[in-house]
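Retro notes (design track)

What went well: tokenization of the new backbones is finally stable.
What didn't: we kept losing track of which sequence belonged to which structure.
Fix going forward: every design gets posted as structure first, then sequence, in one message. First example under the new rule, 146 residues:
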């Protein structure tokens, strides 16, 4: 099992109440040595999902890990590119982003929520040892006035 856990952090809100809930981890599933595994934001079963409830503008920054690690110290490199992140708004509108870059989410008053979706690529080496690999991605959200 290869899983990327989520830790959600909210900076102190200013004008509007906000909540951030890690709804689903990024799950690469069983990996084969030497075969890259891609999880897209369209993969509802394996993509990471964070629920954001607020209104107005919020700045979001993901702290993405460079690798998954086993308890024995083995690592599997991870990559995140433009399109590996998306914001799904309540009205079904989707906006893509690069998980390596901060981005802004605008939720109009009365709409209340959006989902931050994250996929990525795990690339085990041809001699990758079997085992359980994990990592943590941190989501930092700050309410803005602009």
């Amino acid at each position: 099992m290869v899983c990327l856990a989520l830790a959600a952090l909210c900076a102190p809100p200013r004008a509007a109440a906000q909540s951030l809930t890690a709804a689903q981890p990024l799950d690469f599933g069983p990996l084969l040595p030497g075969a890259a595994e891609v999880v897209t934001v369209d993969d509802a079963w394996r993509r990471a999902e964070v629920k954001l409830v607020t209104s107005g503008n919020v700045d979001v920054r993901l702290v993405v890990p460079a690798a998954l690690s086993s308890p024995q110290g083995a690592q599997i490199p991870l990559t995140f590119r433009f399109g590996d992140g998306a914001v799904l708004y309540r009205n079904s509108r989707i906006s893509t982003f690069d998980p390596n870059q901060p981005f802004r989410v605008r939720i109009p008053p009365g709409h209340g929520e959006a989902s931050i979706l994250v996929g990525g690529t795990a690339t085990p080496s041809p001699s990758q040892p079997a085992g359980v690999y994990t990592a943590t991605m941190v989501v930092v959200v700050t309410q803005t006035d602009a």
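Added context from the reviewer: DSSP finds no helices and 14 strands in the chain.
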